[in-house]
């Protein structure tokens, strides 16, 4: 049976935004984020990170650095709350910046395309219409709606926010509490 998931943007949603980060030592979790991830786990939801990492295409960081930063985010969450991520998906692409044709190209994995979410749905048998996304930028919510218009999206505070999300929240933890309430309502 297909499972529900919560898709999470990484930078600005789980950890503090620090620009094009290839250094795990610069990772600092946003307050409450680790406990939010643990609560999502406890709710039985798949917890999947989907992140644009165009710095790879731009030649500023490598895919290995992206993986190390992802591992550091996962390690900090596990240490703080025992929470875990089921997967990390990242898009190292940019349509016109960079010199490496592996990365400097169009890809529907790059948000606002929904390719990462669609691939996760295949990999994990996810019921997209019954899933959620939490992100800090319009492109996060656009990617969710591109993958499936029924995905419910939550906007955390950000300079990249417009008005395309379904709900505005104060933090990932606030979004998690609202998701928990929605699941309780739908179970009644």
Describe the overall structure.
With 188 residues, this protein is an alpha/beta fold. It has one domain (5-187): Rossmann fold (3-Layer(aba) Sandwich), CATH 3.40.50. Helices cover 35% and strands 14% of the residues. The protein has helices at 33-42, 63-81, 115-124, 138-147, 172-187; strands at residues 5-8, 46-52, 87-91, 132-135, 152-155, 167-168. It has a six-stranded parallel beta sheet with strand order 3-2-1-4-5-6, with helices on both faces. Helix 1 (33-42) crosses helix 2 (63-81) and helix 1 (33-42) runs parallel beside helix 5 (172-187). The longest helix is centred in the middle third of the chain and has 19 residues, at 63-81. It is globular and about 55 Å long. It starts with a strand and ends with a helix.
Poorly predicted residue ranges: none
Q: Classify the helix fraction into a percent range.
A: 25-40%
Helices and strands, in order, run as: EHEHEHEHEEH
- Estimate the global geometry from the Cα principal axes: globular
Neighbour order of strands in the largest sheet: 3-2-1-4-5-6
């Amino acid at each position: 049976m297909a499972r529900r998931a919560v898709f999470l943007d990484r930078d600005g949603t789980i950890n503090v935004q620090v620009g094009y980060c290839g250094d795990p030592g610069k990772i600092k979790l946003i307050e409450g984020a680790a406990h939010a991830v643990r609560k999502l786990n406890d709710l039985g939801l798949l917890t999947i990170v989907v992140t644009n990492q165009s710095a790879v295409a731009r030649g500023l960081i490598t895919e290995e650095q992206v993986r190390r930063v992802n591992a550091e985010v996962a390690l900090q969450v596990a240490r703080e709350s025992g929470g875990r991520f089921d997967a990390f998906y990242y898009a190292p692409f940019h349509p016109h910046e960079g010199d490496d044709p592996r990365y400097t190209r169009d890809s529907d994995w790059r948000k606002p395309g929904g390719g990462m979410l669609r691939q996760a749905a295949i990999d994990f048998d996810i019921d997209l219409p019954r899933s959620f996304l939490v992100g800090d930028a319009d492109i996060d919510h656009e990617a969710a709606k591109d993958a499936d218009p029924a995905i419910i999206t939550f906007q955390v505070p950000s300079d990249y926010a417009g008005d395309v999300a379904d709900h505005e929240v104060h933090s990932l933890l606030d979004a998690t509490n609202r998701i928990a309430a929605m699941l309780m309502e739908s179970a009644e």
